[in-house]
Amino acid sequence: MTWLTQTARDPRPAGDRLAALWAAPGIVRLPGAHTPLAALLARRAGFQALYLSGAAVTASLALPDLGVLALDELIFFTRAICRAVDLPLVVDGDTGYGEALNVMRLVRELEDAGAAAVQLEDQVLPKKCGHLSDKRLAAPEDMARKVAAAVRAARHLRVIARTDAVASEGLEAAIARARLYVEAGAHAVFPEALRDVDEIRAFAAAVPVPLLANMTEFGRTPLLPADELGRLGYKMVIWPVTALRVAARAMEECYTLLAQAGSQHALLERMQSRRELYDLIRYEDYEALDATIAKSTLPQE
Is pLDDT of 4 > 70? Predict the structure, then answer.
């Protein structure tokens, strides 16, 4: 079955499917999938939902995560991933690509592309990764207006409000912001860059909506297992850039060896084979759609 002929997709809106996962026992595990191929691999591993990181998309375009990604680029990746896999996709919407009207357009574009939720953060441009220093924050009321606009525009999309206030304003201020965003209609909250388990636990006790924990590497938050985060009161966990970082290291080593040895022979055992790749992307199913394409015979491996 290919996406050109697929008729068995879940008829429920993606946002409703994500909310059903929130309502089920346990924590929802959302690996970062920055390409459709990565999404297929994550689904094969058994994940029930995915996360599209703005940092991962910009890095794949050789750009910094400073709010320079264009809306059309984000929508392209969202649509391509949602076309490849029928899993709820949470999309990093950065600061909303503008003010209230821009946020409303972002919501509608993401819904039409197939997303389940959008994450909006309370920084101002140029925004930064949540684990870096000197982030500049929007006024709480301005962010609350963006959240309200997003909720107003949404038909099924869930709105996740992220606050980056802990580093500059402290935990209590971040909790106050989160409560304000929930009053504005946010369905869930993402407290970014919490610094220890005590802060992780305190935030969960103070904000009684589904919470998202960010287990990004090399950041300010301790890396905790998903089940432990669930026991601490969190409903979602993301590993936003993990797969991209691993893939980038593998490509770096690949190119280094090719440059030095002039041959890929030593890499063969570390590769996904042609047969495995074709099986993943359902090559033969596409080939079968057009009778004029003769069935391919793969070389012996």
Answer: yes
